[in-house]
Amino acid sequence: MALYLLFRLAGVVRYMPLRLAYICGNVVATAAWLLLTGKRGVAIDNMTRVLGDSKAARRAARYSFLNFARYNVDFLRAPLIRPEEILSKVHFDRWHDVDAAFAEGKGVIFVSMHVGNWDLGGAVQAARGFPLNVVADPFFNERTNAIVVNTRQWRGMKVIPVERAAAGIVRAMRRNEGLALLIDTPVEDGGVEVTFFGERTMLPAGPARIALRTGARVIPVVMVRPRATSDQLICLADLDVRPVRTGDDHRDAQLLTQQIVTAHERFIRAYPDQWYIFRPMWPTVAPRRAAVEPAFAREQ
User: Fold this and answer.
1) Count of CB atoms situated within 10 Å of the CB of 62
2) 214-248: per-residue pLDDT in tens?
3) Cα separation, 215 vs 231, whole angstroms
4) CA atoms within 13 Å, Cβ hemisphere of 259
5) Radius of gyration, CA atoms only, the chain
6) Closest Cα partner for 169 from 127, 137, 206?
7) String of b and e for 32-51 (b: at least 16 CB within 10 Å)?
């Protein structure tokens, strides 16, 4: 109930000027940073593994709270965006390659992490005429769940309930549709071991196994904002990921998942403060120093 009331109250940001709505989001994010000490500590620890420097990691973690609030502002303001405006909000110069992936006729799996604004990416694909399916874990509160589902459906996405995910996904691939999945939730069972920022972790193998079963293309992708106070996005995608078939199904899933994760390493190194990761991603080990200087979304 509390989460539902928060969603209803937060809905007032729909009627504010964008900058004012982001300022309100900053206030909420700052309070969360100060009060949610456990989430703050986890975020800093994760960022340390990405950046290797404690000072830079703390800064990136702090900004990730702010950017997550801005993502939620954008999500709540989604019903105000006219369909013809959606395409103008995402900048990408390789749509022809995405079209070519769909032309193969077996569906396309867009694999993202909790980076930037993944929901708007789905809306863009729907606006371009390629139906996009998302698998939704339901909220405990039915009214909160209805708000989230309705917002995504308004954007043109098809929501597949998690309890019917397997059949819904196979049908979507047979219809040559898109499927969006998030992969940065560590698992103990049913996953595969990969190397992520130099450390071993277990991540879901679902995207890889679906692709290997159906022949669908896999495209790792994120949508990041170039400036902190802008709702414009840049699309980063790796269109060169291809499965390697060795005859060992588990090994094939592991190799494809590793390709996906390696692509996301590049995206996150460039924009670490737009990775909203408030859960532990690795076992407790000494972090490694990053080799690439990050580019933060600048406050302007």
Assistant:
1) 18
2) 999 999 999 999 988 888 899 999 999 999 999 99
3) 35
4) 20
5) 19
6) 206
7) bbeeeeebbebbbbbbbbbb
* Phi and psi at residue 233, to the nearest 5°: -130, 150
DSSP 297: P
What would you measure as the largest C-alpha separation in the chain, in angstroms? 56
DSSP 8-state secondary structure symbol assigned to residue 158: E
Cα–Cα distance, 43 to 239 (Å, whole number): 29
Q: What is the 3-state secondary structure (H, E, C) of 59-119?
A: HHHHHHHHHHHHHHHHHHCHHHCCHHHHHHHEECCCHHHHHHHHHCCCCEEEEECCEECHH
Q: What is the pTM of this model?
A: 0.86
For the record, the structure tokens of 56 come out as: 């830079």
pLDDT grade for 138, boundaries at 50, 70 and 90: low
Give me the helix-helix angle, 37-51 and 18-35, nearest 10°. 100
Annotate 135-152 with b (16+ C-beta within 10 A) or e (fewer).
bbeebeeeebbebbbebb
Q: How far is CA 228 from CA 26, 58, 72, in A?
A: 11, 18, 13
The encoded tokens of residue 286 equal 């000494």
Please compute, for residue 27, the number of CA atoms within 13 A of its CA located in the half-sphere on the CB side.
Answer: 7
